[in-house]
Amino acid sequence: MRLIACVALLVIVLSGCGGPASSTPKAYRVGNSCVTLDQKRIKNMAVFENHCSFRVFVKWFDQDYCTTGCGAGPISPGRSEGIMLKKVSMEWAACESPGSIRGADGSTVWNGGSFRCED
Known about the structure:
Strand content: 35-45%
Structural class: mainly beta
Number of helices: 1
Distance between the termini: 48 Å
Order of helices and strands: HEEEEEEEE
CATH architecture: Sandwich
Shape: globular
Radius of gyration: 22 Å
């Protein structure tokens, strides 16, 4: 009887070892300080260049092709990726891949402005 009680107690204790699942998303590095945008190479094109030490994903909005948002990547360190872009104003954000660009409030949709890099 004592053995059964010990085993039952052990099962109860071990079932709680993992604790509750964490809902905190993983944070990724922001790449805006080490990614550049070159709009001078080819007409109606631009190039994102990754000078970071990590792969990045870039998302942007412009007033022409990508009014609802476009993305490029992952772009490896030292590499670049061309995009269609007329000479219009645009807003972009870069995050370490495989992170996602999210709104500053953590929402899954980024519509420009402040952002976070998370799962």
